[in-house]
């Protein structure tokens, strides 16, 4: 599903870029070029490795290979082309935190054994992702985004909101 969403985003971003190239042209930084270099070196190592097919496609258990990095690079290029200001990035993180908060709340409901919350039958919380390790990785990003937003927001209710999210994510993460 994420690949489909990224493909739709890339097409939409291409349309924006065609309509207004000056406004939506990505701003390349050192970090952007480091990511491009990483993907290029990954491609090169896949190319000269023992099995390019497995290096390219891989599997979920092994991180999904080069194809995942190509999609993440495309997603990153779209983001740096659309999100230009610090305020834009904070808004993006806020939206991401809403969905991460919903996932964390679901995990909490699963932990508490509330009716209507599916439990995967594992000893650890998996929420709707079906895999506790995937949930933990996702929540780690949620903690990082919440800490970042907490640092730059000044209103008491915003900082309280981010603090509650950090506490929720940390609790579910360790369960």
Concise summary:
The protein has helices at 2-19, 21-24, 30-48, 52-57, 65-82, 86-112, 132-152, 156-174.
Helix and strand run: HHHHHHHH
Low-confidence stretches: none
Number of helices: 8
Please give the alpha-carbon distance between the first and last residues: 27 Å
Mean pLDDT: 92
Helix content: over 70%
Radius of gyration: 19 Å
- Molecular shape: globular
Structural class: mainly alpha
Kindly state the number of beta strands: 0
The major pleated sheet works out as: none
Portion of residues in beta strands equals under 5%
What do these coordinates show?
This protein has eight helices and no strands. With 175 residues, it is mostly helical. Helix 6 (86-112) packs across helix 8 (156-174).
Keyword list:
single chain, 175 residues, mainly alpha, 75% helix
Topology diagram in text:
Blueprint: H1 2-19, H2 21-24, H3 30-48, H4 52-57, H5 65-82, H6 86-112, H7 132-152, H8 156-174
